[in-house]
Amino acid sequence: MLTFQMKHLIVMAASLLAGLSLSPLQAAETKKPNVLFIIADDLNVFLGCYGDPVARTPNLDKLAARGVRFEKAYCTFPLCGPSRNSMLTGLYPNSNGIQANAQIFRQTVPERVSLPQAFRQQGYFAARVGKLYHYNVPASIGTEGHDDPASWELQLNPAGVDRTEEEPRIFSLRPGSFGGTLSWYASPKPDEDHTDGKIAADAEWVLERCAKQKDRPFFLAVGFFRPHTPYVAPKKPYYDFYPNEKMRIIPNIKEDQADIPAAGLASYKPEQDKLTDELRRSALQAYYASISFMDAQLGHVIGALDRLGLSENTIVVFTSDHGYHTGEHGLWQKQSLFEESARVPLLIVTPEGRSKNTVAKTPVSHIDLFPTLMELAGLKAPEGLQGQSLCSTLADPKTQGRGWALSQVVRGGGFKRFGASAAVGDEGGRFFGYSLRTERWRYTEWDEGKKGSELYDHEKDPNELVNVAGLPEHAAIVSNLQRQIRDAAKASFPASGLTPEIKKDQGLWAPQFIE
Which of the ends of the chain has fewer CB neighbours closer than 10 A, N or C? Predict the structure, then answer.
């Protein structure tokens, strides 16, 4: 007769043998998933997987087929620094205080835990290759830019010929000025000599190191610089993909602009008056070429992930910091609240392969990435994140979720001090524009409507060419969206009853708050 001790030993042995007999896939499922977070710079949805008829982006198209493509994803602020700080803190720009470039959230809310830092604090190896927080492009390439050292264990900052050799040859609408204005160059040098080529090689090197240390999960962030200006990419094959004479020109600009408030067009830059149709085609050709070049480098990174056997336990995220204009509404580059500027590509691939090759059409925001990745990894999220988890949408892309996304910009000079409910002062003419994107509508208010409003029906007008905000038949819709956008804007500030205090000498919201 078996004693209790003997039965207990048999049960323990059986359990041990069962554990040893787990398949490699079952064993991988017991581990924390890795995260590969890839972000492009100034990339709109000129991608094959988003239906662009011109773009050649085979690697991103294949990545989209492995997971969920978010059709309506939006940044919180269409400018590099505010967008990236918002995404990586999980806070709206009104709460983390970053509403301009060349700033980092440690200046305003130093106690906050960033997305990669949250993974690092819970045992992950956190590494960055290239641009995650803001960089001055191209001047900061090869440096750490405006980075956050607490976010990473390892930072790699390669610089290629686009930075070290070719700048004197780059064409610019403002000679000698590259990052802030339209500028481009078809390089004779091969992929591997360019910064993004070196970023891909460094990312592959980090993945090889991670594959050897299987007992520790990783959060690897890869930040490509293209297609940010200057649009520098190898001429062959990327510029050759896009014959100049086949590049489109946006027609009827004056008619389109007639019903747009002045604030809606304020991202226009004076040097763009120099654009001829020939230059517009050349700029668009260079932008597309830079996208295809970036896509090829992403292909090397995903190829390494697959080759090293890491794909089966790695969450992959691909996005951009904001969208980009290429002549729509007479605008180029960013900082508008139109669809072209606020909308971003967003692809998420999970190890389980849930909802492969599917499309989620509900509006989502960059602010949602932090809580989503924490939940997917089974980690504890910091308090106070302002986004929603997208895990239910990843499981079923028809899930509605919040159903809207909020984007904002700043116009004018000086400072405007906002309470949790309304503007309480105006210094120097500075004011906010907010835009709410629902599944059907885009509604935009400038200075709470005092400087104009815009309403676009995406079912009938996907290019946002007709502002119907003033039409009597849309009065009820405007009234409803006005309440919704103002509630959303109020919720984007810190806790109720608190007001950010301004440090005028730094041009920042201060980290402390006053009652």
Answer: N
